[in-house]
Amino acid sequence: MKLWVLRHGEAEPHGSKPHDSERALTEHGRSEVLSIAAELIGQPITAIYASPFLRAQETAQLVREALGFEPEIRTVEWLTPDTDPDKVAEQLVSVSDVLLVSHNPLVGNLLSYLQHGAGYPPERVSTAGLAEVENAELLIGSMKLNSIKHP
Questions:
Q1: Which of 69, 82, 106, 127 is the most exposed place for a label (fewest CB within 10 A)?
Q2: Cα separation of 86 and 83, whole Å?
Q3: Domain range spanning residue 67?
Q4: Does residue 14 sit within a domain?
Q5: CB neighbour list of residue 10: distance below 8 Å, 6 or more residues apart
Q6: How far is Cα 88 from Cα 63, in angstroms, rounded to an integer?
């Protein structure tokens, strides 16, 4: 089982929109996403799950187009920034080889949780940072971090 966890690209600054969920990618953010999408070419991705926030949706769509990925993006509430990693893990029990597009602090906390369990500091992931974790099955605290790549 492999999981790819992608933090959205650089977005408009906080305060630029009435709601955080409405912040869009900047041109630099779009460029970051397209750069990191190349790392996913040839990977056996079966689905793309994304936060409903605009910047995550834009990130997921850019990756989908870059990969020529046919299935629609699966928009899920459990990938928003402040979701607990255990709630995400519950959703991943029956999936494999998926790309998750989300935000910090969730991205860093989730990667730490999957590798070490609860109570460890989050992984540091920049905008458009892409992590790959793997194990024979989803076991909290025992997933292997294969890489974290930044654009």
A1: 82
A2: 8
A3: 2-9+19-149
A4: no
A5: 25, 26, 28, 29, 32, 127, 128
A6: 21
